[in-house]
Amino acid sequence: MRKKMAVQQKGAGNRKPKNFIWTRKDLLGIRELTPEEILCILDLAATHKRRWFLKDRAGVAHFSEKAAALLFYEPSTRTRLSFALAAQRLGAKVIQLAQGESSMQKGESLEDTVRILDALGVDWIILRTSDRGVLAPLAPQVRASLVNGGDGIGEHPTQALLDLMTIAEQGKPWGKLRVTLIGDILHSRVARSLVAGLKSLGVQVTLCGPRAFLTPEVVEELRVPAVSDIQQGLREADVIYVLRVQRERHSGTRYPSASQYAREYGLTEARIQRWARPGAVILHPGPVHRGVELDSPVVEGPHSAIWRQVENGLYVRMAVLSLLAGVPRTLRRASGTSRAPRGRQRAGKKLYNRRESRPT
């Protein structure tokens, strides 16, 4: 039986501390998570980051008898590599299986592939697919923990979590933050997950982009304000989140050309200096189309936290794998053992569990 994770955690806002128990087997989306669950992941990710920086390996769980399988049926660099490295840093074995290497080429279904890995005793299955919503019916059929590595235009939960971690490191309380997402909202699983996470934590969110990417259907789905004027979108934002234009998902030509998009919505140094707040932070999930969504000087400039996003992705994914394995947030492992002690664990330092805990 999967062990529940008990931690003592301060609630958001002014609520009194309470015992929080992590019970989820799978991570399929951000929309299903409570604010407490999101903050729990961010806290543990911060602990992993701090301990790794200090070279404190004693507090890192060692899953020498566990295995993670990576099934990526769409191209990936950041997500696939960081999940593999996260599992390795936790001591687990890593199996990587591309669609072209599996029996799906012979007609085997995705469901059967997942069940084969489960029968072989894999502990985590990280899946990326072009089909939206396929993980939910699979999760109850297997003992392994399923992690959504991106499902079509559905969700990308760990990307949203690493974005939230990067935003949190700016030090401003969630309830006082304003975030603008710019670009191809319509086809973005990143936008769907990140908007859900931001709203859950009380952040004010605005969508910005061409009307072709801000259809009434997607605006109604996300239920946040939308504007087409980039100047309006930039002016009040503490965080400017630029999305990739996903031409591979466009069923038709929704936007005339990359050059036109760059002229109308590309972020240049001049636009940042003219319209953005002095302390605004710029994020992008990658890969960046330089010269289209962002100019290179913006990617490498003082406003950019893009490379920190990549770094934080590793620690967020370490946290997710640890929690899904049922390991307490304060990982006090006795020397020579591979299992954390039973019972309630004292929570680690809470860097991200706040709404109004720090002054602006």
CATH superfamily of the largest domain: Aspartate/ornithine carbamoyltransferase
How many H/I helices? 12
Write the CATH fold name of the largest domain: Rossmann fold
Radius of gyration equals: 20 Å
Q: What share of the residues does DSSP label as strand, in percent? A: 15-25%
CATH architect. name of the largest domain: 3-Layer(aba) Sandwich
| CA-CA gap between termini | 45 Å
Strand segment tally = 11
- Major sheet: order of its strands? 9-8-7-10-11
List segments where confidence is low: pLDDT < 50 over at least 5 consecutive residues: 1-17, 328-360
Shape: globular
Estimate percent helicity: 25-40%
Domain count, please report it. 2
Q: Which CATH first-tier class of the largest domain would you pick?
A: Alpha Beta
Describe the structure.
The protein is of the alpha/beta class and 360 residues long. It folds into two domains: 5-152 and 313-324, Aspartate/ornithine carbamoyltransferase (Rossmann fold, 3-Layer(aba) Sandwich), CATH 3.40.50; 157-304, Aspartate/ornithine carbamoyltransferase (Rossmann fold). Helices cover 33% and strands 15% of the residues. The chain has helices spanning 35-53, 78-89, 110-119, 135-138, 157-168, 189-200, 216-222, 230-235, 258-265, 269-275, 296-299, 306-324, and strands spanning 5-9, 18-22, 67-72, 93-98, 124-129, 145-151, 178-182, 204-208, 226-227, 239-242, 281-283. It has a five-stranded parallel beta sheet with strand order 9-8-7-10-11. Strand 3, helix 2 and strand 4 form a beta-alpha-beta unit. Mean pLDDT is 84; it is low at 1-17 and 328-360.
